[in-house]
Amino acid sequence: GLLDTLQKVKGIANGVFSHSVGMGIITVNPVRDLPNDVFKRKPKKQHATITDPKEIGLLLNMLENHIGSDEVNAALKIAPHVFLRPGVLTGLLWSEVDFQERLIRINAERMKTKKVHLVPMSTQVFTTLKNLSQINTGSDYVFPTPRNKNASITTNALLVAIRSLGIDKFTFTTDGFRHMASIRLNELGYRTDIIELQLAHTTSNTVRMAYNHSNLIEERRTMMQEWSDHLIELKETTPSLSLNSATTADETMEQYRKSKRKTF
Fold first, then answer.
1. What are the backbone angles phi and psi of residue 131, rounded to the nearest 5°?
2. pLDDT tens figures, 72-131
3. By the 8 A CB rule, do 38 and 116 touch?
4. Can you tell me the distance from the alpha carbon of 186 to that of 125, in angstroms, rounded to the nearest whole number?
5. Which run of H or E residues covers position 145?
6. DSSP per residue over 87-134, as a string?
């Protein structure tokens, strides 16, 4: 079951046998022809996320308690709304933000799919970015690091911010925002191909078909605005439990779950 060790040993063996073939000691590299299905597959790791509506509201309230730079706070604020991978979000460029069209156009070279990715801006995202644009940092980045205007904040900055609130890796990760949106939007009845398209998943046939219909951008605009409205509603209707340095996210979540179980 030690699959990481297995890959290291396999790599070493492959190097030894390749060298032996090159030296004329043997004629065939047995590792090269080793079928991939000989060993069990490495289980796909799922990123920790939160999908219970009330716990989403609690999470959003907890994120409001983070004290940090304007850039990190703003990135955390819009992260649940835009479905972007952490690295794409933190590296967002002002040239990719179109306030007139209310669209974020991620450059193809920054996308895993190598295609330009469109993110309709909800009113909430538009307002946050518009306010941030009023701060003259002199940087091409939307979220520049305070120490260097020519560099953006890192994904680790977001992770550190989340961990500083006592939220551990088993409860939530930076990728958890994407998984949270995917699961909840499917539960809310939105079309799967629209959700997958907005998440920039392009491996399925439904997503490939969706790319052939340019009018889907309006349906995506509607979904993104309704999702933002949904998040704000959850945030405003969920009691904000007080946090202190001795209270972890798990304990805070458990406080909330206990409060739900109370009968009067």
1. -65, -40
2. 999 999 999 999 999 999 999 999 999 999 999 999 999 988 899 999 999 999 999 999
3. no
4. 22
5. strand 144-145
6. HHHHT-BGGGEETTTTEEEE-GGGSTTSS-EEEEPPHHHHHHHHHHHT
